[in-house]
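Sorry to interrupt, but I need a hand with the structure work. Could you write out one complete protein record for me, on any chain you like? Could you add the entry underneath, on a fresh line?
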Amino acid sequence: MRPSARLVAAAASAVLALSPAALAAPSPPVASPASDNQRLGDLAYILGQSHALHRVCAGQEDGFWYELMQRLIQTERPEPPLRRQLIDRFNQGFAERQAQHPDCSDASRTAAVQAALQGQALISTMGKPDHSDRP
């Protein structure tokens, strides 16, 4: 399954809207290419992290990143096992960051920027062929 161009564009726009100055910094390296499903799972995880980090400063009612996750599922229409995996990865990312950053602070804002950079780097690989099986 290839991520749809509209979803990748929407996710990229959301990431880029966060902090232009922070996003000007070099992107962290991305591990070797992964399958499309793995990339979607990684994106769901980052969206979960971003949701937790954004809510801690913007308020518990804020659902920006959750709504983006909902759009990912609606757009991709994954089979039930992959859908469950994406939801689980989102929840894992959320729980991890919520536990690490229960309060709004400089550290939580920095973590939010780092998640955005990871998302930006991941999005740049989506829709590209997976050559991880090559020597």
Observations:
- The mean pLDDT is 78.
